[in-house]
Amino acid sequence: MSTLALGAARAGVELRQFWRERDAVVFTFALPAVLLTLLGSLFSGVYDGSTVTPAQYLVPSMIAAGVASTTFVNLGIGIATDRDDGTLKRLRGLPMPPLAYLIGKILLVVAVTLAEVLVLVAIGVGLFSVDLPRDPARWLTFGWVFLLGTVACALLGVVASTLARSSRSAAAVLNLPYVVLCFVSGIYFSPVGALPHWVIQGGSLFPLKWMAQGFRSAFLPDTILPYEVVPSWEHGRTALVLAAWCIGGLVLCLTTFRWRGRQTR
């Protein structure tokens, strides 16, 4: 079988295992949904010169945060657990290349992330009156931003999983950089353009900021652009940054991925 076929077969196994863990499924979808509901309820009013409310501005950013949570955090913890309990060691004895295992994991998070996005969009439409895009070009923008952002964050999650010494420490190791990235990327702040300059510069180095900006360009009208960092959605730069993180993440995965934990002799 080809590497891609092996990866697809592995994805089927991963999906069945994920849906059997009902508590993990509930908390995976509940955390971003609860944060969006609570944070969105704190804001009121409308931005000057636009019909967008602060809660509506928050929705696309929280979708990006949900994507990063499902990919970077959950995937990283899952791989660290597989490494710690010996699953990866047993898989190493099979004629399966590391890339096939990574493909299976990424296909898993793509499927779960799509479900996560549907939940957050439903909350945005139902609670905060977010209008779904009517222009096919905006849905196309959402599609390529979602694809590149999901792959980039998933690959970074694979890389970050090597930092955890065990499955017990994985949650702390993965959640700390995730929370920091959410803050410097302006996820919890509305509008992003009001952030301090040094925070904006730091967040611009990472994919989460660009993914959130890309989602805002798909869901929000152009009248909100004066409240962005620059009065442009910067689609070209967004694509370049996310693609660069995809390529760099893949290289790091292939060079740093370990089948055994640090404590395994």
From TrEMBL:
It is found in: Cell membrane; Membrane. Keywords: Antibiotic resistance, Cell membrane, Membrane, Transmembrane, Transmembrane helix, Transport. The chain crosses the membrane at residues 24-47, 59-81, 102-130, 142-164, 176-200, 239-259. Its main location: membrane. One of its GO terms (biological process) is response to antibiotic. One of its GO terms (molecular function) is ABC-type transporter activity. It is a multi-pass membrane protein. GO terms for cellular component: ATP-binding cassette (ABC) transporter complex. Pfam families: ABC2_membrane. Residues 23-260 form the ABC transmembrane type-2 domain. Belongs to the ABC-2 integral membrane protein family. This is Transport permease protein. It comes from Asanoa ferruginea.
